């Protein structure tokens, strides 16, 4: 087993990574809470009901199952979980278990941070994207019709349990989607990691055991290092939003249907590459290298549908990362180094939108 510690003083916690991790621990002894509730979705419950029920002593009432999909990360689902906690008379010494992908982890964390002003929660991520990114760092949220992740908190889990065997049931499209967040770490801080991924792309796409474990461990190490320095995104953590300003706008305009989060991020990264080149931050060779890596791993570089340019700009203006009336972007200063700026001519932003849409 590989372990990392997110070092946040009294909010520190471990990230444990292993194949068949859940089978190797006695959950009730490891987490001796009298009251435990699992949040999952319909797809994950159908695949892993036995594992999920084992976490709550076989009590189906202590499992909340929501529909699968980003559009269900909303206040209605948030209220549904709170209602179950109240019906079961859970107290402040309870444990909420997130068993699912990024939607489940974000929602469970937000519920945990607000129920009776805060209860403990554990992340058991089942998608690559959640394992390498969203389960680590304490960002919790639900979406609002006017913007993604607009209602939420910073609230750290007590543990992140990454069981690599859970990826066996993950559809290949969702697995590839998660690779966008893995590539992101190389794009913003380690060009050598990108070359490692390029050289091992066949093993990565084939989910070869040792390569997969190394990739996830390195990704979590990058994320942990950034969160250690900047828990609440006042500085370096904002670079993790590479591709997300464009990507979140795409998701919102598509009403969170027909596109996965990682796919939208990949398109956003490609658009950020174009914009970085247009601004003179990187040269054309670097821009093409960025695009080629996205293509190598089967990620999309262009949105599946066209958008109204003004609607796209308006969606980005509502992004929570903006601190003024200008749109804030994470761009490439080089391949392996990111820069944050809002000093970009609107004409260049429009060019980037047109570059990334049909």
TrEMBL record:
Gene3D superfamilies: 3.40.50.1970, Dehydroquinate synthase-like - alpha domain. GO terms for molecular function: 3-dehydroquinate synthase activity; metal ion binding; nucleotide binding. InterPro entries: Dehydroquinate_synthase, DHQ_synth_AroB, DHQ_synth_fam, DHQS/DOIS_N, DHQS_C. Pathway: Metabolic intermediate biosynthesis; chorismate biosynthesis; chorismate from D-erythrose 4-phosphate and phosphoenolpyruvate: step 2/7. It is found in: Cytoplasm. Binds 1 divalent metal cation per subunit. Can use either Co(2+) or Zn(2+). Zn(2+) binds at residues 181, 244, 261. This is 3-dehydroquinate synthase. SUPFAM superfamilies: Dehydroquinate synthase-like (SSF56796). Residues 64-176 form the 3-dehydroquinate synthase N-terminal domain. Catalyzes the conversion of 3-deoxy-D-arabino-heptulosonate 7-phosphate (DAHP) to dehydroquinate (DHQ). It comes from Ignatzschineria ureiclastica.
């Amino acid at each position: 087993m590989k372990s990392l510690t997110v070092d946040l003083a009294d909010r520190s916690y471990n990230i444990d990574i292993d194949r068949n991790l859940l089978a190797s621990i006695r959950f009730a002894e490891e987490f001796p809470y009298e009251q435990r509730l699992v949040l999952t979705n319909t797809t994950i419950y159908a695949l892993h009901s036995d594992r999920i029920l084992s976490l709550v002593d076989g009590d189906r009432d202590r499992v909340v199952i929501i529909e699968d999909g980003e559009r269900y990360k909303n206040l209605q689902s948030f209220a549904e979980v709170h209602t179950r906690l109240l019906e079961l008379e859970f107290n402040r010494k309870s444990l909420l278990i997130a068993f699912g992908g990024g939607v489940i982890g974000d929602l469970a964390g937000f519920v945990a941070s607000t129920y009776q002003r805060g209860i403990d929660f554990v992340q058991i991520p089942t998608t690559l994207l959640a394992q390498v990114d969203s389960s680590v760092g304490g960002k919790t949220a639900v979406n609002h019709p006017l913007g993604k992740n607009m209602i939420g908190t910073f609230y750290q889990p007590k543990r992140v349990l990454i069981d690599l065997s859970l990826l066996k049931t993950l559809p290949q499209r969702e697995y590839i989607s998660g690779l966008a967040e893995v590539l992101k770490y190389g794009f913003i801080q380690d060009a050598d990691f990108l070359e490692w991924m390029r050289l091992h792309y066949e093993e990565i796409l084939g989910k070869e055991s040792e390569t997969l474990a190394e990739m996830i461990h390195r990704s979590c190490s990058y994320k942990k290092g950034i969160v250690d320095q900047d828990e609440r995104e006042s500085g370096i953590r904002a670079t993790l939003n590479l591709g997300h300003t464009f990507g979140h706008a795409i998701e919102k305009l598509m009403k969170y249907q027909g596109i996965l989060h990682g796919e939208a991020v990949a398109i956003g990264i490609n658009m950020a590459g174009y914009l970085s080149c247009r601004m003179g931050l990187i040269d054309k060779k670097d821009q093409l290298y960025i695009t080629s890596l996205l293509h190598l791993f089967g990620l999309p570089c262009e949105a599946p549908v066209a958008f109204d340019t003004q609607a796209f700009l308006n969606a980005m203006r509502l992004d929570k990362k903006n601190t003024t009336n200008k749109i804030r972007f994470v761009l490439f200063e080089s391949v392996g180094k990111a820069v944050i700026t809002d000093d970009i001519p609107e004409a260049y932003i429009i060019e980037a939108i047109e570059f990334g849409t049909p």
